[in-house]
Amino acid sequence: MRENPLFTKRGFPAKKNNIKTNMKILLTNDDGYQSTGLMLLAKSLVEEGHEVYVVAPDGQRSAFSHSANIYKDITFKRLDEYCGAKSAYISSGTPADCVKFAASATDAKFDLLVSGPNNGENYGDCILYSGTVAAAEEGVLWGIPSVALSRVGFGGAFQSTVDYLTENVELLHELCPKNGLININVPDLPMSKIKGVKVVPQCESRLFDDYFEKKSDEVWFATGNRIDVEHKESDVGVVDDGYISVTPLTVLRTDCASIDALKKRLQK
After folding, report:
1. pTM
2. In terms of residue numbers, what domain contains 47?
3. Is residue 129 part of a domain?
């Protein structure tokens, strides 16, 4: 295995010196505050000496993407205790609402935002629908270095995902892009079975054949199947091969490569 700065030759996450420690870390997700992964991550980061803050939805908000409430009342209930966190709120709002509240209505100045760990993949075109990734994007808009974290697969253990983030949180903070975030997907495997880490682009192919099944005259069931696509050197491909995928994402949506062609045809 090629040596990677986020992984040691022994196959365990690597600690680095001379980078920021004891950070103020904001945690959120789209699975809700009762998510096992969120609770495990909060406890783990607190045990490492970080000051943890949690603002998370009061229930499931998967696939809410970057939806936010405007000119509406949203509840934010402060919890007496949550896994050793400095403070914790649960909200009737979306993941993006949670980040907006934490950044604008609390006194904390966060060093890092971690959204997740999500219960399920957030790679390929799933990124467009993800409340987990959108919460990290919202963090970027507020000037907070941000990471989106997901455990690929459902029903398994979060421990490998939590261990990887905890061991590398300082390094990830240092490497966060200025106008973007780091998107991480961890295979649902024990750490000893994970082959390593690969920094790769987002898969360009569509991953799911979405469709609706009619249940009655007015009710349809949204479903879909995974499409078998060629995706070896992408976030989808490396996770399928047993690696952790690390993908830098930008919140700037301009297709700069198309600017000149459009100017020639459309600009007057």
Report:
1. 0.90
2. 24-204+231-266
3. yes
